[in-house]
Each structure stands twice: as C-alpha cells, then as structure tokens.
Write a structure and sequence with these properties.
Number of strands: 10
Largest sheet: 10 strands, mixed
Structural class: alpha/beta
Order of helices and strands: HEHEHEHEHHEHHEHEHEEHHE
Number of helices: 12
Length: 285
Amino acid sequence: MTLRAAAAVIVTALLVATSGCGGSGKQTARVLYAGSLVNLMEKQVGPAFASATGFGYQGYSAASQQIANSIESKVRAGDVFIAASTAVNDTLTGPANGGWESWYATFGSAPLVLGYSPSSKYAAQLRDGRWYDALRQPGIRIGVTDPLLDPKGELTIAALDAAQRDYHLPAGYSAAIQKKAADFPEQELLGRLQSGQLDVGFFYTSEAMPAHLHTVTLGKVHEAATYTVTVLEHAKDPRAATAFVRYLLTTARPTLTAGGIEMQAPSVSGDAAAVPASLRSLLTR
C-alpha cells in the first residue's frame, strides 16, 4: 500500500468514527421548535444548554404545524419538538399519524398581543386601547400567519371573532380584517414589522418581549399559545434530547419567564410510561 493510500484509509476511518456525532464525538440535541421562540432558543436557551451540559445543540424553527407536517412526511428529522399548541401534538400521536409522539409535556403559555411600529401613523390609535378600530383604518398594514400552518394564525382569527362579539362590532368585522391582512411565515413576521414593512402584527409575548417590540394587549380578548415539549420517537441522540428537555423544564425556567412565557408546573399527556425515567419526577399527570 502506498503512503497516499494508507493516509486515505486513515481519513476514511476517522470520518466513519465521528459520523452521527457532528464530527466532535459528542451527542447533539436536534431541537425543532415553534418559530415564536427563535430569539429565546438561539440566543439564550440553546447556547446555555450546550455550555452547561457539554451536549451539542442544533435548532430549527418554523410554524408548529409546518414542523409537524415535515416530521410526519420525513422531510425533517429531530430529537426534541417544542410546539405552540397541543392540537399540533395530536397530529403526530398514534399509529395513523406515524407514531412520532407517545407523550408530551405542557410547560407554559404566552398571551397573544399586538406588536406595532412606533413610527406608524396608526401608533397613537393603537395605544389608546381601541386597537380593534385601528385595524379598520384604510391603508393600515397588518401582518398575520397562516392558520393552516401556525397555531398563532388560528388564534388570530379567534381573537378577531372575539373582538367582534365582545366589543359589539358590526357583523363581518372579523372577516374584513382577515381579508386585508397579509400572511407571512412565522419566522419572517417579526422582521417585517421591525423593518417598517408593517404597521402592526399579531405576536406572542414570548417573541415580543425578547425582541423589545412595542405592544398593546387585546383588552377583553384573551388568546394564548400553549407550549409543549416532547422527545420524538426514534430520536437519534436520546440522551442529548432528554438532557435538553430536563434543562428546559428546570434551569431554563427563569430565562423563559423573562422572555414572556408564563411558566406552569409541567404536566404530561399521552403515555406517561413512555416518558424517559430521568424526566418523570418533573412531570405531573
């Protein structure tokens, strides 16, 4: 064997030995999560988890149902899934849905609010509490997300329906606002508002607070994200995945609270016996 051939064999052996470990020999938690958490996950929770535990972290964000669809169709693989609605988890549970989840834990919520550009000519009207009237103004640029892909899009429709009812607005109010609003991917909506392309958009406090958005509450209307987490079946790195979930539900709690999530005692849904042993003490039924 020539020296060059021997070197090639050694390199190949090293690549095989490190494959599946990110080339570093350590396990990595691949976390698929709701796009409303991108700032919290990528700037705070993910890096802090990696630093504290020695495991790797790799995050991917999109609308919750969009991620679920990509998991079920095997387009996107991951170890941990954080959704913004329990209904999304249901689409991955059971043999008919591929059996990707057997349990999930609900750990917090984040109210729906209106984020607005302070330079918008509608800013003063939004701040005076009559946000529902401001949305009717001609020319106002409203950003929402697709209700078929993102729970926030569904909650936005529910909020507009509730405003029509609770503020005694004309019939057709909700439909008219939905018609004039523009749909954007969840991970793009924040940037659109910050760049001045929109006057106003619907956000969760979990994305508005880390981004320091100007916001107004919805008054009589109360809608909120419900955050859940699970270790996906067939996780590539189950130890890293379980360590991440434990970190999220314990050490990361103050970070999540400061980032706009109203934390609650984690409660498990589904098959409690399938919960990893190291997590069971953290969860209630």
